[in-house]
């Protein structure tokens, strides 16, 4: 089984004990603001948010299904997804296709309040290029797979509570997949054991995200159905 650290090293070159983006590369997408555009449709929640240059075409198809096609330019990025409000302890099943090049993720993405936490359960990716240093917090394995845990901090950045300083939690699969079951409580419990405390849950979506980092540009397509 290949660890995320090894995968990242192969993609982004040498990775120290605290993961950092390559020199000169910084995150250009304020994907925290996606929560402000959350819409309730057909019994679920759908979001589509983009900024900067590029072609980002995402559409909800109904029944928990959405499609995306993207081709980014410097300074551009997007997030689209279908999910739940509130989030919390759920069994999230998803299926579909995800073909991506460049920075971005296919991930379960959400927020909690008090404390204000932005979190990701990353299922697949092409390039992971963190905007802030990632601190390893261990790993855990259960019937759905093995995930490595990380934290990071954003200082005075946009959030669902305005401009704030907040912590990010990350679960990253050691083996990519597109389709399966995400039992959120398993991740919440693993984070708690690692000292990563959550607050009360706001929203949660199974999202496709792409963003430009320096000369690295995103492109690709996805079709995802969430239940």
Describe the structure.
Belongs to the glycosyl hydrolase 11 (cellulase G) family. It comes from Decorospora gaudefroyi. Residues 32-222 form the GH11 domain. The active site is at residues 118, 209. Keywords: Carbohydrate metabolism, Glycosidase, Hydrolase, Lectin, Polysaccharide degradation, Signal, Xylan degradation. 8% of the residues lie in helices and 55% in strands. It is globular, with a radius of gyration of 16 Å. The strands form two sheets. The chain has a nine-stranded mixed beta sheet with strand order 1-2-5-13-7-8-11-10-9. It has one domain (4-226): Jelly Rolls. Residues 1-43 have low confidence and may be disordered. It has helices at residues 4-12, 184-193, and strands spanning 39-41, 44-51, 54-62, 65-72, 77-84, 91-101, 104-113, 117-125, 135-142, 145-159, 162-173, 180-183, 200-211, 219-226. The chain is built from two helices and 14 strands, in the order αββββββββββββαββ. It is mainly beta and 227 residues long.
């Amino acid at each position: 089984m290949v660890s995320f650290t090894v995968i990242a090293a192969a993609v982004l070159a040498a990775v120290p004990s605290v993961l950092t983006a390559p020199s000169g590369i910084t995150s250009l997408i304020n994907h925290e603001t996606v929560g402000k555009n959350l819409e309730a449709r057909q019994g679920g929640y759908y979001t589509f948010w983009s900024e900067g240059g590029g072609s980002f075409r995402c559409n909800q198809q109904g029944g928990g299904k959405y499609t995306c096609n993207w081709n980014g330019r410097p300074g551009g990025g997007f997030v689209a997804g279908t999910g739940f409000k509130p989030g919390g302890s759920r069994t999230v099943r998803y299926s579909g296709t995800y073909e991506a090049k460049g920075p971005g993720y296919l991930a379960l993405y959400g927020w909690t309040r008090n404390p204000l936490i932005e979190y990701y359960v990353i299922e697949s990716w092409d390039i992971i290029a963190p905007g802030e240093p990632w601190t390893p917090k261990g790993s855990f394995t259960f019937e759905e797979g093995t995930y490595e845990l990380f934290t990071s901090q954003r200082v005075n950045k946009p959030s669902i509570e305005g401009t704030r300083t907040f912590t990010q939690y990350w679960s990253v699969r050691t083996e990519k997949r597109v389709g399966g079951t995400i039992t959120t409580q398993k991740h919440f419990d693993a984070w708690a054991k690692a000292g990563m405390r959550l607050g009360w849950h706001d929203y949660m979506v199974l999202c496709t995200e792409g963003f430009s980092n320096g000369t690295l540009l995103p492109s690709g397509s996805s079709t995802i159905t969430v239940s």
